[in-house]
C-alpha cells in the first residue's frame, strides 16, 4: 500500500508539472541571432526569473538574459547583488527585432508586468536589487520611457506615484547559468508555482500584444 501511495503521488506531481508547462506556454530564449537588425534593451522589475518569461513571450523577442546592471562592481555574483552592497539590480537583457516589436511596446510590457510604485520592492522581494529601473541607450529611448511614465500618471493608472528609475545604460553582467530559463526548467518550484506563473498569466490576460 505504501509503495502504491508513493507511486500515485509521483504521478500527481508529474502530471501537475507537465500540465502547468503546457497550459502556461512558457517560452524559452534562443542563442541564435535571427536578424541583422537586432536591438537590445535592459529592464529591471524585481526577480529576473519573472522578467525572462514576460519578454520571451512576445513576438519579436529572441531572448531575455538574466543578469545584473546599475551598479559599480564588475562581474558581481548573485550573493553579492543580494547583499545590496553592489548597487546592481536584477535585470534582463532583451534581444529583439525592431521590425517585429518596437522599443515602446517593450516599455509598455515592462510597466504592465510589475508594480512600478513600490520602492525597492516587488511583492515579497525586498531590497535595492529588486528596484524598478529602465536603462536607455540613447535619448530617444529615454524619451519613450519618460513619456510612458507621464501617460500612466495622467491616466491615474496607479494610486501611488511611479518610482521607476530611468538611467543611462553602462554595463550588463549575465547572471549565473542556473538562473537562466529558471521557470521553464523548474516548474515544480514553490515560488514559480505560487508567484511567477500566476503573475505571468495575469500579465498575459491584461496586456494586449502578439504572443508566441
Outline the structure in words.
36% of the residues are buried. The longest helix is centred in the N-terminal third of the chain and has 23 residues, at 2-24. This protein has helices at 2-24, 48-56, 78-82, 103-112, 139-154, 182-185, 190-206, and strands spanning 39-45, 61-69, 89-96, 121-122, 125-126, 132-136, 165-168, 172-174. With 212 residues, the protein is an alpha+beta fold. A hairpin with a 2-residue loop joins strand 4 and strand 5. A six-stranded mixed β-sheet has the order 7-6-1-3-2-8. The protein has a two-stranded antiparallel sheet with strand order 4-5. Residues 1-23 have low confidence and may be disordered. The protein contains seven helices and eight strands, in the order H-E-H-E-H-E-H-E-E-E-H-E-E-H-H.
Percentage beta strand? 15-25%
Name the helix and strand elements from N-terminus to C-terminus, one letter apiece.
HEHEHEHEEEHEEHH
Mean pLDDT: 90
Beta-strand segment tally: 8
Oligomeric state of this protein: single chain
SSE-based structural type: alpha+beta
Query: Count of helical segments?
Result: 7
* Approximate helicity band: 25-40%
Calculate the terminal CA-CA distance, rounded to whole Å. 45 Å
Unreliable stretches covering 5 or more consecutive residues: 1-23
Main sheet: strands, sense, barrel: 6 strands, mixed
Instruction: List the strand order in the largest sheet.
Output: 7-6-1-3-2-8
Radius of gyration: 18 Å
> Looking at the structure, what is the overall shape?
globular
